[in-house]
Task: structure prediction
Amino acid sequence: MKRILLVFALLGASFAGFSAPKIQVSTEVYDFGVAVDGTVVEFTVTITNVGNQRLTITRVSYNCSCTSYELPKRDLNPGESVAMKIRFNTTGYSRYVQPVSQTVTLYTNDPARPQVPITVRGTVKTLSAHEAPAKTLNETFYLLLDLRDPEKYAQGHLFGAVNIPLSDLEA
Result:
C-alpha cells in the first residue's frame, strides 16, 4: 500500500512539474543587415505563452540608451501572445567595429527560461557625400560667393569661392 501511495505521490509531483508558464519568442536574433548611421531600426517580436499557467514578464532590461521598447502587456494567459516593438537608434555606431549589436533581456516567471535575451545586430555605415539623399544636400554642401570685383578676386580668394561681382547681381 505504501508503494502505491509513493508511486501516486511521485506521479503527482511529476505532473505538477508540467504545469508552468512557458515563453516562446518569434525571434531571438534580429539581423537588420546594413543601416545608415543615424537611422532607427525597428522590429517586432511576438511573445507567446505556450505553457499552461499565466506567464509574467517581470522586468525588461537593455544595455544602452540607444535601445528602447514598447510592451503593451506583461501578463499572458496560456496561449496568449503580445507584440513587442524594439527600436535601435544607430546614431554614432558607424565608428565601432562592425557588426554591432545590442540586447534586450526579458525576465519572466518561466522556470525553464527566467531570462530571454533578444539581440539586434547589423552593420552601421556612414554615407559618403555622393550617396546622401538630395534632401540633405543643403546640410553638407554650400556655395561660397565672392561678391568683390574680379580684380580683387584675382588678388586672392577662398578656395572654392565663385566670383559674381555685386554689380552683376544689382543689374
Remarks:
- The radius of gyration is 30 Å.
